Amino acid sequence: MNLKSAEARKFRQFDLKKKFRISESIIQASLFFAGILSIFITIAIVYELGKEAMLFFNDPDVTLGKFLGTTKWQPGIGQYGIWALVSATLVTSFIAMVISLPLGLASAIYLSEYASSKARSILKPVLEILAGIPTVVYGYFALLFVTPILKSIFGDQIQVYNMLSAGLVMGIMILPLISSMSEDALSAVPRSLREAAYAMGATKVETSLQVVLPAALSGIGAALIVGISRAVGETMIVAVAAGSGPNFTFDPFKAAETMTGHIARISGGDLSYNSIDYTSLFAIAMMLFLLTLVLNLISQQIVNRFRERYE
Amino acid sequence: MENKYAIEANALSIYYGSFMAVNNVDMLIEAQKITAIIGPSGCGKSTLLRAFNRMNDFVPGCHVTGELLMQGKNLYSKDIDPVEVRRKIGMVFQKPNPFPKSIYENIAWGARINGFKGNMDELVEQSLLGAALWDEVKDKLQDSAYALSGGQQQRLCIARTIAIQPEIILMDEPASALDPISTLRIEELMQELKKNYTIIIVTHNMQQAARVSDYTAMMMLDKEGSRSGTVIEFSETKRIFTNPKDKRTEDYVTGRFG
Amino acid sequence: MSINSHYPQAEDFRHALNARYRAASIWQALFLSALLIAIISLLALIYNVLDGAFGFVAFDYKNDPAAYTSTPMSELTQKELAAILKDNLSSGAYNKLEKEQPLEKRSQAELYTLFLERLVELDTKNTWSMTESLLHENEIRAEVARKYPTAKLEFRSWLTPQFLVTPMSSKAEFAGVRTAILGSLWLVGIAILFALPIGTGAAIYLQEYAPKNFLTSIIQTNINNLSGVPSIVYGMLGLAVFVRVMEPLTSGSVFGVTDANGRTVLSAGLTMGILVLPLIIINAQEAIKAVPDSLRQAAYGVGATRWQTVWHHVLPNALPGILTGTILSISRALGETAPLIVVGASTFISMDPDSPFSKFTALPIQIYQWTTRAQSEFHAIAAGAIVVLLILLLTLNATAILLRNRFQRRW
Ligand SMILES: Nc1ncnc2c1ncn2[C@@H]1O[C@H](COP(=O)(O)OP(=O)(O)OP(=O)(O)O)[C@@H](O)[C@H]1O
Ligand SMILES: [Mg+2]
After folding, report:
1. Does one domain contain both A175 and A269?
2. Which domain holds residue C156?
């Protein structure tokens, strides 16, 4: 094409006025919709759960005194003591954290401070596989492997369905999460701090435990909080291994039902809408949602602040 | 310490994997003097400096040939413990890197891990005095070290190094991240410290080298096309800056390099 | 200097240093043992599953096979079996089977199963795990001889090709995961069909279009939070919205499907789609973020519009990352159980799902139900189903890793 010809010059005429491109606008609008949809999901959760939960709390039979002040839960016959479920959630989550925090932290320290890249390439996948195993499989493991072992140790002291087994296995399940978040926190600690410690004649352990670990503490705190939120929301392990039927007890050898386990069992059966059983499940779910929301928000806040500090 | 020389490099070469970063360095570092290492970027100054207290051990694949003698012992021989080496040869880094702890803890920590038995408060005070920081921080010893200015942080790093009483202090461009006033204070401090310590400093600042050091080592890539650095000239600072033997040194110190 | 004397010197120092090293190696051993515990747990879990999936089984026939045929059972051909079934089944039962699929067209294995199930009525007395079977064979034989004198003892794998293609049954010996696998596929298909376009769109919006303002940061925080919401809460959302409020749609009644409620594979799939949406968005965002700015500037530089830039340059380069994220989301969706229970997976169903409005079950649901049964033969098929699920997941994740390594670019 000869750019000097008249036509060519005509072709090259342009105006720089802003053009309204209809297809671009449609695309942009639908992308925006996709982006904002997540907000609607949250609103839907809050609205739907909240609506049914309100129905539950507005029932004249349900009083705050009963809800928080008694320890038997069976809405069908007028027992509304949420502690019967909360206690089991507390016990199983506590056991899970007692297992997963030290183990996760220790393995994070090993991976970030000690392991050669070759060792890492073998060890990391193990944790990733653990993290990828469906929780119902962990449930099978808890009921048919860990519980028999506990039985053979403690004999009749421990029930077939018990919170200890569920809690222990939940700890193993959460370990990879704690480990990988802690490892991120540890490796975000600048190398210069480690060098400073070494240059003062510190050994590797002294550096790791007394300099790097404290410097990563907030990130590890975030991992702990996310771990708790995961434990509180975990369903299948407790549904399979911890027992069915609300039971207000803090004895890990006993069977008891967590908030999540209760939702799973009751909703799995025949459930008629608008019954108190139905609405009570939403009240529990709403509590779970709010609790995990707060925990997740806190941990995100910590992680963000932590990131700012070392960037 | 009867020995006139604090540390001695004999035919020292340093490798990152198969890449030779520093080639065949011989140096006699005199005790209780300040020795400056100067040279263009990438010629291996930091590599050499970090070899003195075995900080390069942490770089995978980094190894040395030749000897590094301190009190007659080769610091790279098998029976030498690198932790003990670093306890004797402290280091101050380019960017101030205090621990995220209180000012007090920054100093006490190194003392504690090294088995200090005396009065800790006294040690902290002595070290801060020694680093010319005491007056500025004596009322806020429990504050976070991060609340200090960059210059103060760097002096805190010097204080925590002298708190463990090393023989030699290595400094890698200790003032390059600081403003002129803070730089001046660090330089004054070095003059003070040399009464008790041997100091080796890497610097890009010619005036600084001329001002503070007794000896200067000039490093340079050893020849065109090679990427290995070596010490091309090492003598009294005065001489390096007024009457260098090597043409390249002259070009570099007078700013005609490159 | 005076303070110097307060530091241990020479021998003393070396002594102290040795003590420090001892402490150091103890700590290091502790750190490593945490990882060992993780490895042992993983091995124990795998062992536990495999241990359950193989082993001795003691069974008996309610009706003597000799009453139906003189040929030894193991030598029956497809034709013989079809004939036996035709002769001995009640005509109602026979016609029903014929209607599902003519007997002549069925395989020998299938007919043999029918023969065992319907005619001789195989009855499992007890099962043993692989370890028990291998270590205590003699005791087991003695026990069987004592407790069930007429029973036969056989070492079997509960995971067989037959297991994969047979539908549910109320008897563990004849149950399979066909319905469950198909249900899982439907479920995951619907979930991804829903979440992939929306998730990618959201990621494009957030990375390429969204202004840096309050709304954007709210959206981002919200997505991060959604990814941490317990899956059972999504189940409750699905129950309230898809199963109940949108019942006419999800049950298919507006499309003329009769005899349906909202507890369909469509409801479950959409619930699962919402559950994996944050995951897909976050992964797609990472992938888009990794595309270097220079590429965008080059496109703008030749006069491309924003969408042209995204469509022709950013997306193709982010695609492997987005796909990796999608595969990971698929494996998440495959393993999720709790939300399915809540939205109402069927407890017993043997019909293949054939439309979005079908009732459904899924692999993890079967695992859950079989695990919670009391009889040991159900634990054995639960183990078999777990092996199937884990192999599926392993394949998916291996694909994701390969994809990531293959297309990972160093910019
Ligand atoms: N950890 C490392 N691994 C591999 N090579 C390295 C490493 N550190 C430095 N090098 C290389 O060794 C050579 C010397 O680097 P060094 O940091 O010692 O230079 P320098 O003289 O201190 O430079 P500058 O004045 O910029 O600080 C350079 O070519 C550098 O690329
Ligand atoms: Mg340097």
Report:
1. yes
2. 52-91+98-173
Are the beta carbons of B164 and A201 separated by less than 8 Å? yes
Q: Are residues A29 and A129 in the same domain?
A: no
Give me A232's structure tokens.
Answer: 């509180």
**Chains in contact with chain C (at least 3 beta-carbon pairs closer than 8 A):** A, B
Give the residue among C268, C314, C265 at the shortest CA–CA distance from C288: C314
Instruction: Kindly give the distance from the C-alpha atom of residue B61 to the centroid of ligand 2, in angstroms, as a whole number.
Output: 19
Same domain, C113 and C182: no
Q: What is the per-residue pLDDT for B1?
A: 45
**ipTM of the shown complex:** 0.90
Q: What tokens were used for C164?
A: 């994969």
Q: Which residues of B touch C16 (CB under 8 A)?
A: 115
Q: Are residues A214 and A124 in the same domain?
A: yes
User: For residue A14, what pLDDT band results from cuts at 50, 70 and 90?
Assistant: low
Q: What is the mean pLDDT of chain A?
A: 90
In this structure, are C123 and C68 located in the same domain?
yes
pLDDT less than 70: residues of chain C: 1-5, 258-260, 408-411
pLDDT tens-digit series, residues B168-195: 999 999 988 888 888 898 899 899 899 9
Q: Is A28 exposed, middle or buried (0-12, 13-18, 19+ CB in 10 A)?
A: middle
Please report the atom of ligand 1 found closest to the CA of residue B61. Answer: 3
Instruction: For residues A34 and A91, state if they share a domain.
Output: no
Please answer yes or no on whether A134 and C281 come within 8 Å at the CB atom.
Answer: no
- Measured between CA atoms, the residue of chain B closest to residue A116 is B60
Expressed as residue numbers, the domain containing A188 is 69-310
Residues A266, A163 share a domain: yes
Length of chain C: 411
Overall number of domains in chain C: 2
Residue C281's identity, in one-letter code, is I
pLDDT of amino acid C107: 78
What's the CA gap between C389 and C180, in Å, rounded? Answer: 10
Q: Does C13 sit within 8 Å of B84, measured CB to CB?
A: yes
CATH code of residue A208? 1.10.3720.10
Do C197 and C68 share a structural domain? Answer: no
A188-208 pLDDT per residue, tens: 999 999 999 999 999 999 999
**CA of residue B67 to ligand 1 center, whole Å:** 21
User: Residue A306: its chain B contacts at CB < 8 A?
Assistant: none
Nearest CA to ligand 1 atom 14: B44
- How far apart CA C53 and CA C376 sit, in angstroms, is 11
- Within a domain: C47: no
**Domain termination residue (choose one: C151, C173, C195):** C173
For residues C260 and C357, what is the distance between their CA atoms, to the nearest angstrom?
8
Can you spell out the DSSP letters for C364-386? Answer: HHHHHHHHTSSSHHHHHHHHHHH
pLDDT digits (tens, 9 = 90+) for C204-252: 999 999 999 999 999 999 999 999 999 999 999 999 999 988 888 888 8
Residues A147 and A45 in one domain: no
